[in-house]
Amino acid sequence: MSDDVLSIIPTDAGWQPDRAAADRALVLVERLTPGVVDGVDVEIDMTWHDAVTAVDARFEIAVWNPERLWFDDAELAAVAEALGHAVRQVRARL
């Protein structure tokens, strides 16, 4: 069975947030992700990488099997504000 993953990453591939900013962004992504509050099996991972990865970033918030296709522009702007850096999203099927 394949998984869908919707990743939110900084627009600058080498940039990484501090822990407090990352935690703020993660809490916001959890609130914006359908299913998390309702107990649906949605996993959200926050990862710092030592080098730029396949998603073209050193920091990533990944939503596994989200109950949505994309975050809208206003939601991405809110995540960017929480993180302190502009973000973009990447979707993949693994």
Polypeptide structure, described:
By secondary structure, the protein is of the alpha+beta class. It has one domain (4-93): Alpha-Beta Plaits (2-Layer Sandwich), CATH 3.30.70. The protein is 27% helix and 28% strand. It has helices at 19-32, 73-83, and strands spanning 4-10, 43-48, 59-64, 87-93. A four-stranded antiparallel sheet has the order 2-3-1-4, covered by helices on one side. Helix 1 runs antiparallel to helix 2 (73-83). The longest helix is centred in the N-terminal third of the chain and has 14 residues, at 19-32. The radius of gyration is 12 Å and the shape is globular. It starts with a strand and ends with a strand.
Concise summary:
By secondary structure, this protein is of the alpha+beta class. It has one domain (4-93): 2-Layer Sandwich (Alpha-Beta Plaits). It has two helices and four strands.
